Amino acid sequence: MARSMRDDLLDPRAVLLHESAADRDEAIRRCGRALVDVGAVAEPYIDAMLEREQTISTYVGEGVAIPHGTAAAKEVVRHDAICVVRFPEGVDWGGEPVTLCVGIAAKNDGHVQLLAALADILLDPERARALREATEVGQVMKELRS
Questions:
Q1: Angle subtended at Cα 27 by Cα 25 and Cα 33, rounded to the nearest 5 degrees
Q2: Annotated catalytic sites, by residue?
Q3: CA 83/CA 64 separation, integer angstroms
Q4: C-alpha Rg value of the chain to the nearest Å
Q5: Strand order in 81-93's β-sheet?
Q6: pLDDT of residue 4 exceeding 70
Q7: What does the pLDDT look like over 100-135, one tens digit per residue?
Q8: Cβ partners under 8 Å of residue 1, min gap 6
Q9: Considering the entire predicted model, what is its pTM?
């Protein structure tokens, strides 16, 4: 059975479907800003997300990246949350085109369950496509909660 996201992880204000970014770092900053804006993380988390990307790419395939902070940044996470940021024009992610970023912030081991639920969604081609092509916040909320 597929795992679904906990309802409290995604604030509708953290679903941004019509963004643009000049490059990968700008896209990551946009994800981090969305998490800051909903109160999930403190400002330093954005730098930790950029630092994580320098260590290992968060590109997961199918036009999707899952940027998140380093383990050391957990102290600036206020509560587990995700953001969904869509870049319709695409962003060059180390040679791969990314149109959907799912930013993650998690305290303790919360990221493990988050990633598992996200993987279930992204490994289903129909659900992954629905997320990549969503143009309304409600579509994203429904897809992540079903």
A1: 100
A2: 68
A3: 13
A4: 14
A5: 10-16, 81-93, 96-105, 64-65, 59-61
A6: no
A7: 999 999 888 766 777 777 888 888 888 888 888 899
A8: none
A9: 0.91
